[in-house]
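Q: Given only this backbone (264 positions), what sequence would you predict?
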């Protein structure tokens, strides 16, 4: 398998794309409670992508029909925005967006909790812990990401951290490299064994995207052919940062404020 490094010029553009995408996600987070449905939020996201003179990377990708993936509660990823899917307090909502900017790609995701007085304190704490563990697993693995690290090492450190907190990482869906295409090799799993897998090279950009469940890790796909949900119906969370791999370390390109979990 050929893993192509990115030129300095390409990395500069990918950094710009990551900054723009961060602003788009921030806009989505700030707008979410103004929306009656996931389609309303989708429309805001599409308009914001256009405002930044970008193209939606998801729309049309393998036939996907929307600019964003908006998944609620036990939905893990690839939730198709729909006017009948209502947004309301008490929900855990993940927002996943990709853009094409100057012929290069950016992709990131966050999960938020829409606070509600109808949910007891214990349940709220459970949701907060889920989101924090999923997000912090990225920062836990960050010190290990540098030139030559194997994908199995990345997955191992994410999995070990998540499972040590009593949660599960999803096996069927993984992160990926990005740049000239939306999804490039190598895949970046959230599970694995040290010393196994492909080496990740410097001057590549990877999307590390832990997907974490309160319950079992098995998933099913809805009849729409896209929406992935937890088989046991338990809550889940999904975060995704773009990370530049360097010789001795790595750099997160997407903005912490945009991607971090929030109670809204």
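A: Predicted residues:
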């Amino acid at each position: 398998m050929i893993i192509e490094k990115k030129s300095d010029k390409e990395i500069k553009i990918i950094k710009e794309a990551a900054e723009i995408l961060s602003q788009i996600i921030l806009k989505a987070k700030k707008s979410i409670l103004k929306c009656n449905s996931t389609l309303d939020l989708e429309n805001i996201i599409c308009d914001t992508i256009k405002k930044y003179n970008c193209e939606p990377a998801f729309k049309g990708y393998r036939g996907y029909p929307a600019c964003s993936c908006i998944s609620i509660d036990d939905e893990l990823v690839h939730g198709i925005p729909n006017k009948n899917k209502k947004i309301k307090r008490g929900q855990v909502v993940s927002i996943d967006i990709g853009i094409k900017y100057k012929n290069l790609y950016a992709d990131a995701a966050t999960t938020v909790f829409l606070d509600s007085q109808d949910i007891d304190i214990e349940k709220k704490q459970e949701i907060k812990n889920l989101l924090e563990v999923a997000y912090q697993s990225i920062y836990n693995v960050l010190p290990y990401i540098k030139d030559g690290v194997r994908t199995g090492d990345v997955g191992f450190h994410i999995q070990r951290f998540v499972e040590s907190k009593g949660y599960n990482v999803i096996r069927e869906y993984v992160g990926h490299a990005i740049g000239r295409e939306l999804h490039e090799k190598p895949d970046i799993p959230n599970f694995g064994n040290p010393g196994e897998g492909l080496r990740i090279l410097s001057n590549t950009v990877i999307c590390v995207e832990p997907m974490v469940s309160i319950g079992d890790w098995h998933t099913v796909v809805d009849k729409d052919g896209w929406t992935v949900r937890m088989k046991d119906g338990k809550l889940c969370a999904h975060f995704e940062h773009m990370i530049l791999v360097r010789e001795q370390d790595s750099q997160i390109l997407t903005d912490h404020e945009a991607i971090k979990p929030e109670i809204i």
